[in-house]
């Protein structure tokens, strides 16, 4: 099973994705970077951590590496969230001001790792195709790059679910 859970802000996508895995062992790949100076962001991270079962292991690592290293029979993997991962990639590669070539390569590597992941996998990402065209170049770049990456991930997933107002809509039913 490879599931992509999409949704807008506060749609319930993370909680839905977590519910797909249950309380058994799992690997949670956290993509949000910690910033001790940002109390609100730290509170969000703490809320996510608090609702995870004690049997889950949290990894703050590149999801590409985690997916490539997964073996058949390993606990399922949850990656939350692709948008924050992409933001970090764009930061690290200068993609906000220059061509996003390196970020696109990283996205392709993530899509390939998703398609070849040997254990159950749930990915969480923001659906960015339903909003207005952002006024800023960086906003348009992020929307375009994440939208293209979401499409590549959806192509490699067996299930795709869109959360709207907390309600899951199955876009691509798997098994």
Q: Could you characterize what this model shows?
A:
There is one protein chain. This protein is an alpha/beta fold. The protein has one domain (2-172): 3-Layer(aba) Sandwich (Rossmann fold), CATH 3.40.50.300. 44% of the residues lie in helices and 21% in strands. It is built from six helices and seven strands. It has helices at residues 13-21, 39-51, 63-69, 82-93, 101-116, 137-156; strands at 2-7, 26-30, 56-59, 77-80, 121-126, 159-164, 167-172. The protein has a seven-stranded mixed beta sheet, with helices on both faces.
Note the main attributes of this structure.
globular; alpha/beta; single chain; seven-stranded mixed beta sheet; about 180 residues; 6 helices
List the helices and strands and how they pair.
Layout: E1 2-7, H1 13-21, E2 26-30, H2 39-51, E3 56-59, H3 63-69, E4 77-80, H4 82-93, H5 101-116, E5 121-126, H6 137-156, E6 159-164, E7 167-172
Parallel strand pairs: 1-5, 1-6, 2-3, 2-4, 4-5
Antiparallel strand pairs: 6-7
**What's the CATH C level?**
Alpha Beta
How many separate helices? 6
The SS-based structural class is alpha/beta
Whole-number tally of structural domains: 1
CATH superfamily, please? P-loop containing nucleotide triphosphate hydrolases
How much β-strand is present in the residues?
Answer: 15-25%
For this structure, the CATH topology is Rossmann fold
**Rg, please?**
15 Å
Oligomeric state of shown chains: single chain
Short recap of the structure:
The chain is of the alpha/beta class and 175 residues long. It has helices at residues 13-21, 39-51, 63-69, 82-93, 101-116, 137-156; strands at residues 2-7, 26-30, 56-59, 77-80, 121-126, 159-164, 167-172. The mean pLDDT is 93.
């Amino acid at each position: 099973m490879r599931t992509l859970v999409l949704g807008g802000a506060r749609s319930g996508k993370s909680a839905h994705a977590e519910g797909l895995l249950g309380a058994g062992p799992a690997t949670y790949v956290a993509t949000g970077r910690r910033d001790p100076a940002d109390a609100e962001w730290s509170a969000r991270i703490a809320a996510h951590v608090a609702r995870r079962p004690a049997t889950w292991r949290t990894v703050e690592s590149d999801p590409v590496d985690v997916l490539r290293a997964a073996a058949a029979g390993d606990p399922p993997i949850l990656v939350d969230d692709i948008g924050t991962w992409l933001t970090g990639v764009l930061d690290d590669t200068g993609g906000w001001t220059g061509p996003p070539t390196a970020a696109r390569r990283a996205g392709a590597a993530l899509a390939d790792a998703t398609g070849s992941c040997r254990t159950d996998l749930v990915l969480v990402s923001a659906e960015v195709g339903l909003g207005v065209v952002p006024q800023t170049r960086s906003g348009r770049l992020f929307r375009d790059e994440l939208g293209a990456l979401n499409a590549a991930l959806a192509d490699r997933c067996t299930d795709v679910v869109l959360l709207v107002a907390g309600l899951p809509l199955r876009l691509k039913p798997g098994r």
